[in-house]
Specification:
Blueprint lengths: L7 E5 L12 E5 L3 E6 L10 H6 L4 E5 L5 E3 H12 L4 E3 L7 E5 L3 E4 L2 H8 L4 E5 L5 E2 L4 E7 L3 E3 H16 L12 E4 L4 E7 L1 H4 L7 H10 L4 E8 L3 H14 L3 E5 L10 H7 L3 E5 L10 E5 L2 E6 L2 H4 L4 H10 L6 H5 L10
Parallel strand pairs: 14-15, 14-16, 16-19
Antiparallel strand pairs: 1-4, 2-3, 5-12, 6-7, 7-11, 8-10, 8-13, 9-11, 17-18, 18-19
Helix pairs in contact: 2-4, 7-8
The structure holds ligand LQZAQKY5 and molybdate ion (MOO).
Length: 343
C-alpha cells in the first residue's frame, strides 16, 4: 500500500536547496561504484544540484510522516531487532537496509519457517545465508528492508508478532529459540584412528592426519592423538575402546569406508557398540561418511574423499558437532537436496 496523499511531497531539485532528504540516494556507475551518494537527513545545497541531476533525480521527496506509518530505515531497524538473537549485532540503516552480523566465530542459526513467514508478508524482505553456515566475526547473516519508502506500522507489527510467536514456540530446531543467532564452537578433544594397511605398514605416507587436524583447528578443536591401524576389525575396535577410555569428546576414523573386502571401518564401529545414526550421507563428495554415537560421544567414519576434496559431508557436520549439536537421521536426510558439490 502506498503512503497517504500529502505525506510525501515532490519538490523539483532546483527548488530543493535547504530541504532535508527523506532517504539515502544511491549512485551506480557500473564497474566503478555503487553506493550512497547522499545520506538521509542531508540538507540539500546549491552545489549538490548537478550531482543529483546526474543520478537521475529531477525531484526529491520531503517527508511528513502521518501517524501509523514508518520510514524505511525505522521499519528495517524494528524488523532487525525483532529477529536478532544471541551474538548478533545490527548495522545502522544504509539505503534502507539493516544487516544482522555475527559478533563471534560460530554456527549461524536462522529458522527457515520464520524467514518464510516474514517474507510472505507484502513488502517485507529478509535475505539470509543458510542456517548452519560457519560465520566469522563481522559477517552478515541477514539483510532486512522494506520495499516502499514509507510503510504502515501494522505490517512491521506483524513481523514482530511472528518473531515473538517463534521465540515463544522455542524455534524450529535446537538452539534456534533466539531466532537469528550464532552458536559458539566448543573446544573438542578428538581421537583419530587412521585405518589402512598401506599406511600402517609404511607403504605410503599418511595424508589424512594433517587434513583432519587442520579442519578441527579451524573450528577451535584439536586432535589429541592419532593411532594407525591395519585393515583388521579387531585392531580398529581396540583403538576405538582405547580412545573411549581416554575420554575424548569426538572420535574420528579415516579410510576403509567403501565396498572393498579390506574396508573394515563401518563394521568395526558397529562391533565396538556404537549406535549408528547413518552409514551413508546423501551428499557428494562424502557419501560414504558414517555418523554414530558411542556412549554419547560422536563417532565419524571419514571416507577417502575428505582427504582430497575441500568441501564434503564432513565439512557440513563437523561445525554442528563442534557447536554441541546432536546429529539425527533427519539432519543427514536433509543434506541431499543441494548436496551435490562437484564429485
Ligand atoms: N565400486 C565402488 N567404488 C567406490 C565407492 C563405491 O561405493 N563403490 N565409493 C567411492 C567413494 S564415495 C570413496 S570416498 C572412495 C574411498 O573410500 P574409502 O574411505 O574406503 O577409502 P580407501 O579405500 O580406504 O582409500 C582410498 C584411497 O585413498 C588412500 N588412502 C586412504 N587413507 C589414506 C591415508 N591416511 N593417507 C594417504 N592415503 C590414504 C588409499 O591408499 C587409496 O588409494 O571409494 C570410492 N569407490
Ligand atoms: O564418500 Mo565419497 O566422497 O562420496 O567420494
Amino acid at each position: 500500500m502506498t503512503a497517504p496523499a500529502g505525506m510525501l511531497r515532490e519538490v523539483k531539485v532546483e527548488e530543493a536547496v535547504g530541504l532535508v532528504l527523506a532517504h539515502d540516494l544511491t549512485q551506480i556507475l557500473p564497474g566503478e561504484f555503487k553506493g550512497r551518494l547522499f545520506k538521509k537527513g542531508h540538507v540539500v545545497r546549491e552545489d549538490d544540484i548537478p550531482a543529483l541531476l546526474s543520478i537521475g533525480k529531477e525531484h526529491i521527496y520531503t517527508l511528513d510522516l502521518a501517524d501509523g506509518y514508518l520510514h524505511e530505515d525505522e521499519a528495517a531497524l524494528r524488523m532487525a531487532h525483532a529477529a536478532a538473537g544471541e551474538h548478533i549485532v545490527l548495522t545502522d540503516p544504509h539505503e534502507g537496509k539493516v544487516s544482522l552480523k555475527s559478533s563471534i566465530h560460530g554456527l549461524a542459526k536462522i529458522p527457515r519457517d520464520f524467514v518464510n513467514a516474514a517474507n510472505a508478508l507484502e513488502s517485507v524482505v529478509f535475505s539470509t545465508v543458510k542456517t548452519n553456515t560457519v560465520v566469522k566475526p563481522g559477517q552478515a547473516l541477514v539483510g532486512t528492508r522494506v520495499i516502499p519508502l514509507v510503510i504502515e506500522e501494522e505490517r512491521i507489527r506483524e513481523v514482530e508478532r511472528l518473531a515473538e510467536a517463534h521465540r515463544a514456540g522455542g524455534g524450529s530446531g535446537p538452539g534456534e529459540a533466539g531466532l537469528v543467532s550464532v552458536k559458539p564452537f566448543r573446544s573438542l578433544r578428538a581421537g583419530l584412528i587412521t585405518t589402512g594397511s598401506e599406511v600402517y605398514k609404511g607403504r605410503i605416507q599418511d595424508k589424512f592426519g594433517p587434513i583432519v587436524r587442520e579442519k578441527l583447528a579451524a573450528l577451535g578443536s584439536e586432535v589429541v592423538e592419532q593411532r594407525l591401524a591395519p585393515d583388521e576389525s579387531s585392531r580398529i575396535v581396540e583403538d576405538i575402546r582405547y580412545f573411549r577410555e581416554q575420554g575424548v569428546d569426538l572420535l574420528l576414523l579415516t579410510g576403509g569406508m567403501s565396498v572393498d573386502p579390506d574396508d573394515r571401518t563401518p563394521g568395526a564401529i558397529r562391533q565396538a557398540g556404537a549406535d549408528i545414526v547413518s552409514y551413508g550421507t546423501p551428499m557428494l563428495p562424502g557419501s560414504m561418511l558414517l555418523m554414530a554415537y558411542l556412549d554419547g560421544i560422536p563417532v565419524m567414519g571419514l571416507p577417502g574423499c575428505v582427504m582430497h576434496d575441500p568441501y564434503t559431508s564432513f565439512d557440513v557436520l563437523l561445525p554442528r558437532i563442534c557447536a554441541g549439536e546432536i546429529i539425527r537421521k533427519e539432519d543427514i536426510v536433509e543434506m541431499g537436496y543441494g548436496g551435490l558439490h562437484g564429485c
